[in-house]
């Protein structure tokens, strides 16, 4: 859904590590991203605002409801890469497309809200799901900050398949039990909090989906993450790595936890990569990661 | 995807608490569910097996890829409720439908595997995603136990929108940061493990999606869960409750954590309910749950 280095590093996304490294943590972002207009600046009756999750990014991964919401929208707003991923039938039908490159997620979301307050039916789009490291919440916060209400805009979230599930599907069945998602971006969450969550998740036997694993600016976070996981899990623990899923440069590999840190130095791991860490029971069989549900302890097969 | 009391209590599912309470934990299940045939019992060239996540359960929530996979399948296998949810265009096009009521997830999955080994193109379906408390892993385990391979069956997982995301969308933006999914069913995971995970998740500031929150057989688990959450979080913490999402009896409520335990005694909370627990920052505004990403600390809006 969103576009900075805190975004879901989702299957199908095509943002580049280069552009990511130009944004995200800049201290002067607050001056660039100030939100101006309030609800009183708009004379029209409000339109509507829907946050649409596109799923893995290609048209096949979109739900019918998402497709319908985009057809109903007069304006479609999003990160350039996601707008480019939309099928022509949808972009041709829209009155206006508004896309901006990475980094402008606050101003872009404000633009979407302003257009809705001005009376238009607006969809703000992103890959994955609007509730997964994405703009669903930011949209609501901006609506609130403008003195408008979600109800007045018929604010709706249309869910999509998150990267955790799109990428898990590519390596088999790595996540079938209790699971956590953790982003390694410390842009909006302090690194000590991230470290503490990694410790807890690894200690408690959760499978772990790691979003935003790596950027040039914070390679230390990835190294630290690998060290923490190895404090609690065996170096042979299977780890699924899905790079650029759904893109031309898609790569899927299953490796061992002990080898993960070194891979941070290769182009397999960047901001378009999602990493799936198995739990104590996960094993690799026939090039698939399998995390048993526990049926084998109850049933004979 | 799956059908016993360990399954995803997904938006759109329509299993009843009554039928659930008749299965799941029975000690004699192993005798009923013994898997028989092995790969050597089949003469034909193997067909294919695809595990398809239907998303929230109604046709609008399905991805185009899921729809295509079901059209390509000759046989569709699933829990009766999910087969009933499929659009007529799909069920009419299939050569055979094989559905069984709740509780038979192992024998049903074996049936799907056997049909694939016998040379058919088989889809096994469930709501939500095949990687979320579902049959993706069980299918692989059964293929392995029969001496076949996933590659020989072109085994594929087609992801769907999980209940966490379908239900989160209905209450706003409750899950936008690091998040965990925990099932309260102790059929396949021991209760001390579940309790320890709840402690860790609540202590570490994760938002929490609770699957399978309640059944008559294990109301204690729900009470214990509420107590644990209250040890770490304020009684005013917002909690989203989505009952029977996408069904005629759908109900969506946002309550406070301190009131959750008492709701276990009402029909709002049963096995068709998904519960979304906010973190320390989550607030309720205009009937929506909002978990801030943290942008407000970086940007001025």
Outline of this structure?
Two copies of one chain form a homodimer. Chain A is built from eleven helices and 13 strands.
Characterization of this structure:
Two copies of one chain form a homodimer. In chain A, helix 6 crosses helix 7 and helix 9 packs parallel to helix 10. With 301 residues, chain A is an alpha/beta fold. Chain A has helices spanning 17-20, 29-32, 64-72, 80-85, 88-93, 105-117, 136-145, 163-171, 191-203, 219-232, 260-263, and strands at residues 48-53, 75-79, 96-100, 121-126, 156-158, 172-173, 179-183, 207-211, 238-243, 251-256, 273-277, 283-285, 288-290. Chain A is built from eleven helices and 13 strands. The model of chain A is unreliable at 1-34 (pLDDT under 50). A five-stranded parallel sheet of chain A has the order 3-2-4-1-5, with helices on both faces. In chain A, strands 7-8-11-9-10 form a five-stranded mixed sheet, sandwiched between helices. Chain A has a three-stranded mixed sheet with strand order 6-13-12. Chain A has two domains: 2-161, Cobalt-precorrin-4 Transmethylase, domain 1 (3-Layer(aba) Sandwich); 164-290, 2-Layer Sandwich (Methyltransferase, Cobalt-precorrin-4 Transmethylase, Domain 2).
């Amino acid at each position: 859904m969103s576009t900075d280095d805190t975004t879901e590093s989702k299957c199908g996304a095509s943002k580049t590590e280069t552009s990511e490294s130009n944004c995200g943590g800049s201290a002067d972002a607050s001056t660039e991203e100030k939100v101006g207009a309030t609800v009183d600046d708009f004379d029209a009756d409000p339109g509507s605002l829907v946050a649409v999750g596109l799923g893995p990014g290609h048209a096949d991964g979109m739900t019918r409801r998402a497709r319908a919401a985009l057809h109903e929208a007069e304006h479609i707003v999003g990160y350039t890469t996601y707008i480019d991923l939309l099928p022509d039938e949808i972009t041709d039908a829209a009155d206006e497309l508004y896309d901006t490159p990475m980094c402008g997620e606050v101003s872009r979301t404000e633009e979407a809200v302003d257009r809705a307050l001005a009376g238009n039916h607006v969809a703000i789009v992103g890959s994955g799901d609007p509730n997964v490291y994405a703009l669903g919440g930011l949209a609501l916060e901006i609506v609130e900050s403008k003195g408008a209400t979600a109800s007045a805009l018929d604010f709706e979230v249309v869910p999509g398949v998150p990267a955790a599930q799109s990428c898990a599907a590519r390596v088999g069945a790595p996540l079938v039990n209790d699971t956590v998602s953790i982003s390694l971006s410390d842009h909006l969450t302090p690194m000590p909090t991230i470290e503490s969550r990694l410790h807890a998740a690894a200690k408690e036997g959760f499978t772990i989906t790691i979003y935003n694993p790596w950027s040039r600016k914070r390679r230390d976070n990835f190294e630290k993450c690998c060290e923490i996981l190895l404090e609690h899990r065996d170096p042979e623990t299977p780890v699924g790595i899905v790079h650029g899923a759904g893109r031309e440069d898609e790569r899927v590999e299953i490796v061992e936890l002990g080898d993960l840190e070194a891979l941070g130095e290769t182009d397999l791991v960047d901001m378009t990569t999602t990493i799936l860490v198995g739990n104590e029971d996960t094993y690799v069989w026939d090039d698939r990661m399998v995390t048993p549900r526990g049926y084998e302890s109850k049933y004979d097969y």
